[in-house]
C-alpha cells in the first residue's frame, strides 16, 4: 500500500457543527413539503397521490447526498406537504408517509452496502441505482402508500390497485429520468462541500472484490 492510499484509509473527515445540518434538514423539509404539496394539488390521482410527483427524484438524490438527513427530510416533507397540507388526517399522514421514507432510504442503504458511487460512472453504479433507486424503492413505496391509504379510509378497496400502479409507474419514470442527471452532473461538485454526508466509494484498501 503506498503512502497516498494509506493516508486515504486513515483520513478523518471534519464535519460542520450539528446546527448546520439541522439548518440543512429544515431547509430540505420546507422544499420537500412545498414540492409535495404543489404536485399533489396540481396533478391529483387520489388524495395524497400525484400523477406527476417530480419531488420524489429530489428526495432520492438528497438522501444520497446528505445521508439520513435527506431520508428524514423526505419523510417529514411528505407528512407535511403531501399529507397534512393536502387534507389527510395527521394520524394517516404519519404512517402513510413511511412510503417516501422507504423511497429515499432503500437506495441510500444499497449504495453503501454495494459501495456504489452516486456519480454513476460505472455499470455497477448504474445497476445499483436502477434496481434500488428506481424499481425496488418505488415498488415498496407504492405498495405501502396504497395499502395505508386504504387502511386509513382515504381510498376504497376498488381504488387500491389503480393507486398502487399509478404511483409506481409515475415514480419510476420520474426517478429514472431526473435523478441520474442530477447525480451525474451535480454530485462531483457536491462531494467537495462540507455538508456532503452521502455515499463515498471505499478506498481500494477496503475493497475485497472488484465491481464492473
From TrEMBL:
This is MASE1 domain-containing protein. The chain crosses the membrane at residues 20-40, 52-82, 94-114, 126-147, 167-186. Keywords: Membrane, Transmembrane, Transmembrane helix.
